[in-house]
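During the second year of the project, the team shifted from modelling isolated chains to modelling whole assemblies. The rationale, set out in the original proposal, was that interfaces cannot be judged from single-chain predictions alone. As a representative example for this report, we include one of the complexes processed in the last quarter. Its constituent sequences, exactly as entered into the pipeline, are reproduced here:
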Amino acid sequence: MTRTRVAHILKTGQPETTVDVRGWVRTKRESKQDFAFLELNDGSCMKNLQVVVDARIPDYSTLIKQIQTGASVAVIGTIKESLGKGQRVEVHAQSLKVLGTADPATYPLQKKGHSFEFLREKAHLRPRTNTFGAIARVRNALCAAIHNFFQEREFLYVQTPIITTSDCEGAGQVFQVTTLDLARLQQSKGPLDYSQDFFGKKAGLTVSGQLEGEIFATAVGDVYTFGPTFRAENSNTTRHLAEFWMVEPEMPFYELEENMDLAESFVRSIIKDVMNKCSEDLEFFNERIEPTLLASLQNIVENDFIRLTYTEAIKILEESGQKFEFPIAWGHDMQSEHERYLTEKHFKQPVILTDYPRAIKSFYMRCNEDGKTVRAMDVLVPRIGEIIGGSQREERHDVLIERMKESGLVPEDYWWYLELRQYGTVPHSGFGLGLERTVQLVTGMTNIRDCIPFPRTPKSADF
Ligand code: ATP
Ligand code: MN
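Output from the structure prediction step:
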């Protein structure tokens, strides 16, 4: 007999059929009238399956004594219509096997309602809680929705390297990858000789798959990458991880307008999919985590995003009369508090900001005629701030070289990137969406460390 998932039994299980169901006991109640109730969860859905164990089954009292919160069991039983409230059906056990016990004196999840901070220290057990089970299902549904969105539009899924020798942003936020003996190097004097290193030159973990994405976009058409991304920024915020997942579509022949249209329908489409597939989980988040969650997601799905330029947004912020922790003026990078003011207070909707000052954006963004701004676009959403960063790419060889120099980069280091502009260059655009920030948006969880199974942040990479 094959195992049936709890989700299937609860949704479509037919009374009087026999099932094999296995999972972890959330609670046990013993009744005076010679039977016990087990609340069984196998992670397939939020709800538990009620298992009724009759005292007449063999070894009843020994088995029931062994079963405590956290124990794993295998049950063969019959589906019955449930007389109790809260569930359509339950299972009456014919046989019950304890696969593993959990000592109540030491089991960390013995009690309910642990703080998220506590659960971060128990990353090996937190998926067994309601909240983290739900986050895992939502994250999975988001990933499937992301692939569906692009596959339906005939984008090619391209895998870009995790180890790279090109630093996309030119900033010092790269984790170095080396096999050099650091302990020995510490004692020797003189400059480092990277020709002795594994790759023969300085290498690091990727901060973005974009540059390599552009190679394929200008050859096979619309593409997307979806993989782990690393940033060694020492920023201890609720929105930054040292290791996160990014989705990066790259489209030839797209200008900024089309890029924004795609980003907007993308965000809307994946949220819609998750709302359909994980409605029970989202209701849980709405009830327990963020009471405005469902309303805010509905708002995102139903309304067009507001579009305005960075310059217009700065004017709104300056005239807002709002006291910000970081003062804002034209030329400054926007902080999360500014982004949230725009989306939560001013527009009460997602916003796409375009045409940022060239001095604060990356070298590859296309320069506007005004000489001051670039064709950047950031998608900002309530509760999070920036969820997508993108741009039309600079396709003009000479302008790109000039911008590299202006950004302190050595054009020769990017010779292959420049050759894309030398041979058959085309206008093209793309963007990057952070998966964990999207999980934050869809679940209402306030800390990004709870939106990835194993968070990596400064001073923390356990498990
Ligand atoms: P921020 O200004 O918020 O730090 P960024 O401008 O450095 O972000 P981009 O380089 O534009 O980020 O990356 C594209 C997207 O990747 C962001 O919009 C965000 O959703 C996500 N992202 C960037 N950095 C991180 C991080 N450290 N942890 C989690 N997600 C991130
Ligand atoms: Mn950005």
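The two ends are 35 Å apart (CA to CA). Residues 195 and 201 are 6 Å apart (CA to CA).
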